[in-house]
Write a structure and sequence with these properties.
The chain has about 190 residues and is an alpha/beta fold. The protein has a single domain, classed as Vaccinia Virus protein VP39 (Rossmann fold), CATH 3.40.50.150. Helix content is about 30%, strand content about 30%. It is built from five helices and nine strands. The chain has helices spanning about 30-40, 55-65, 75-90, 105-110, 130-140; strands spanning about 5, 15, 45-50, 70-75, 95-100, 115-120, 140-150, 165-170, 175-180. The strands form two sheets. It has a seven-stranded mixed sheet. The termini are far apart. The model has no long low-confidence stretch (mean pLDDT about 90).
Amino acid sequence: MPNIRIISGKIGGRNLKTSDNKNLRPTPAKMREQLFSWLRPAIDDLMCLDLFAGSGALGLEALSNGAKNVTFVEQNQDIYNCLKKNCLELNLLEEVKLHRQSAENYIRRVKDIKFDLIFLDPPYNKDYINTLLPKIIEKFVKNGAYIFIEMNSYDEEVYHEDMKLLKEASSGDSTGRLYQIKNENSD
């Protein structure tokens, strides 16, 4: 099993065990480090959603740096089990909610919860971002919320009228973009 290291914060330096699943594509360490340097001034007490959670590195890095809680959504049983075990070993079960289901089902079924920070890092070979993003913005974001989208560097930038691009970073074939929501109807 490969390991992923939490970069900074209260659990910085700790390693996450990951599944050997070929579909797991963790966010590169360089990109996570850049993302959390951008978010550090604003991350305290944020409620986060990590869709397509995979290893959970993004959500766990957020908790390590001061987020209030993280909701993880992961469909694959082996990857989910690994994520749950990491949360248990890091003594973070009280700060997380774990859902073993598809992102589509979570978005369709869950109501009455808003998040300050959403991580969206779906498999590259699907069109999840364009399909799910309007629903995510409609149902789950507060005005001023942040959305981090990781995608293949060769894909076109995502556009939604309520999102403003704040920052962008690339590592290998991955590009991560941090957006902020500006919509009076999202509170």
